[in-house]
Design a protein that fits this description.
- The protein has 247 residues and is α/β, with parallel strands linked by helices.
- It is 44% helix and 15% strand.
- β3, α3 and β4 form a beta-alpha-beta unit.
- α2 packs across α6.
Amino acid sequence: MIELKVKSKEFKANRKASKQEIWFRTKSLNFFLILGLSTFYFLLSTSFSSTYKIAKLKYNGGGDWYANRTAIPNLIDFCNKNLGTNISTEEGLVEIGSSDLYNYPFVYLTGHGNVIFTDQEAKNLRNYLIGGGFLHIDDNYGLDKFIRPQMKKVFPELDFVELPPSHPIFHQKFDFPNGLPKIHEHDGKRPQGFALVYKGKVVCFYDYECDLGNGWEDLGTYPDDSQSKRIEALKMGANLVQYALTQ
């Protein structure tokens, strides 16, 4: 009887200890679960509330990289109002060879004249693009013969390919069933949307014979460009931004 009572006490003590252990483990699990969920929601909320910038690329060679002065601020304003983005209203400016390039998820290059990338700049731009960055090249008329050889320095193994109208880049927030719209007239050629595709991902979009940036500028900058064309250009620009940030 004495031995039985001792064993009974031990059993009760072990059961009590077991209950305490289960209680502790349950509380610990709940704590870490709540902590994890809190961290998740914090990161989720800050990712939507944090601001970021769109930058214009400054290059060498003599071309007017500074063209379309009002284009990016107007595109940013349009995206913030229509996409719900939180892009800083201040346009960024970055040199191709700078480490600051990695601070911008979307960069814009335009101009009419010569473009020259050094080997270091080409390498830096390549690393930026394959690391998740996105480049929009906007032919402001006459850029084509200069920019193609320079981008070949960046991606020797790639060629620009024309994206079909069915490509998702034309079907983001705004639908363009016929592909890239014609915004600004030059030589009567059809607009073409080219891309550099690295491992299945569009890292660079190049609009040719379209001039999206002209369409983003303040109304009246180009008297022949109507408000309807301007809105069309801004919608296509918003598609590019949305695609770049979500692909």
